[in-house]
Design a protein that fits this description.
This protein is α/β, with parallel strands linked by helices and about 450 residues long. It contains 17 helices and 12 strands. A 6-stranded parallel sheet has the order 2-1-3-4-5-6, with helices on both faces. Strand 1, helix 1 and strand 2 form a beta-alpha-beta unit. The longest helix has about 40 residues. The radius of gyration is 29 Å and the shape is elongated.
């Protein structure tokens, strides 16, 4: 399940651009926090831990496993707080322009804080609402450069919907309490204890939650994957939707369109796969965060004993890692890479070993048939499209993965060359010992 949580003065719509992407793999729940959208105001005083504990109750009620948490702005602060208070409930997090220190920009404090304070009380709240039509246009002109990049490509209808959420009536007390709840919940000094794999996305021109908070991530949260997007302010999911989606898809291992969607059988649990690949050829030298990110790009398939995984003539663009059981390699040593052959069992691959990487990289014919071993096989599949996407979105991780693939392939080639040298040496030795036919002692 994916849980999507909006920020201050907002609603579920704040994360609408991500719903179709996430829905390819997850059941999505986009909430209106109490006091926002269509949710009634809570009786309790609002704090960030209050929201975090409330979401923990929701997760326990609707999901039988840890969730993927996606939070924007204040929703990002709530997610980080949830990960600190209830770490077992979150599998992975995506935080977009998260409030971390609780300190909003000076512009927000100058422009919004006075109005927020007035909205707290019924009488002054009525005054604010009565004059809203007169000042709404001025406020929008002042707030647009605070919220959006100068070259923002947000659509007009999305902008109007976001501004309408921010002006929604009856939220005065909620906005006031949340404003100070963020200031009281400074996460500086605590982020480093969060073990949940996390992607943090920030707009380079964010003038709502100052970009200086990204320095806290860089200094204190080395396990988080920080991405800063150009031409985006506080709403990169609307301003740079495709780039934001690509980063999230790469982090969660999601296809960018439904044509590439995975079946239930092919879905894998990222944490389990990350632990497995730490001991495989492809996971050597990667950090925990990198293994988690890489694991989301694999599909998982199971095969019965003796079942064909792929044939020489199939070619293709997939590489395989044996996760359980064994995979047998069958070919004709005299006619490698051809469809016409008398195949023999050449070798067996055990868990952690990779195969098929050459065909994955160049798309040519395979050098052998692959079959499940006598107890069957579970394999992890990585295709070239996913690897290319990973290399584009995270060049450092992509380079490390390609390096590990190359090392594994080089090790196998070296072993094959050693075998050929031994065979050639035995052949030559046999010829030297064979008596010449024209020798007088020959019989």
């Amino acid at each position: 399940m994916a849980l999507l949580v909006h920020g201050w003065s907002s609603s579920w719509y704040a994360l609408e651009p991500l719903l179709d992407l996430l829905a390819q793999r997850y059941h999505c729940i986009a909430v209106d926090l109490p006091g926002y959208g269509d949710s009634p105001e809570p009786r309790e005083r609002i704090t960030i831990p209050y929201y975090a504990d409330l979401l923990a109750q929701l997760i326990a009620r609707v999901s039988d496993r840890p969730v993927v948490y996606v939070g924007h702005s204040m929703g990002g602060m709530i997610g980080a707080t949830l990960a600190l208070r209830h770490p077992a409930l979150i599998d992975r997090m995506v935080l977009i322009a998260p409030t971390l220190s609780g300190q909003l920009s000076a512009r927000i404090n100058w422009l919004i804080s006075p109005i927020t304070r007035l909205e707290r009380f019924a009488a002054t709240g009525l005054l604010v609402r009565a004059s809203e039509r007169l000042i709404a246009g001025v406020t929008d002109e002042l707030m647009r450069p605070v919220s959006f990049a100068q070259r923002s490509s947000i659509r007009a209808q999305d902008y109007e919907r976001l501004r309408a959420d921010a002006r929604r009536r009856g939220q005065g007390r909620t906005r006031y309490e949340c404003y100070f709840a963020m200031r009281e919940n400074d996460l500086s000094g605590r982020l480093g204890t969060i073990e949940t794999p996390t992607l943090v996305v920030w707009g380079a021109e964010d003038n709502t939650v100052p970009l200086r908070d990204s320095g806290i991530v860089a200094d204190e949260w080395p396990r988080a994957d920080l991405r800063i997007l150009p031409k985006a302010g506080h709403w990169p999911q609307f301003e740079q939707p495709e780039l934001t989606r690509r980063h999230i898809a790469a982090f969660l291992g999601l296809p960018l369109n439904r044509a590439e969607a995975l079946s239930d059988q092919e879905l894998v649990t990222a944490q389990e796969v990350a632990r497995f690949i730490s001991h495989s050829d492809i996971g050597s030298g990667l950090t925990d965060a990198q293994r988690i990110k890489l694991s989301g790009h694999f599909r998982q398939r199971q095969y019965e004993p003796g079942q064909v995984i792929v044939r020489i003539e199939d070619g293709g663009n997939e590489m395989y890692i044996v996760r359980d059981g064994s995979v047998e390699v069958w070919n004709d040593p005299d006619q490698i890479g051809t469809a016409s052959r008398n195949v023999r069992h050449i070798a067996s691959l055990t868990p952690g070993q990779i195969t098929g990487e050459l065909a994955m990289l160049d798309g040519g014919l395979r050098s052998a048939d692959l079959r499940a071993g006598p107890t069957g096989a579970t394999v992890l599949v990585l295709d070239r499209t996913r690897l290319e996407a990973l290399c584009r979105e995270d060049p450092e991780l992509g380079t490390s993965v390609l390096w590990n693939i190359s090392r594994a392939m080089a090790g196998r080639v070296r072993f094959i060359l050693w075998q050929l040298q031994r065979a050639l040496s035995r052949t030559q030795t046999g010829r030297e010992m064979e008596p010449a036919r024209d020798h007088p002692l020959a019989v």
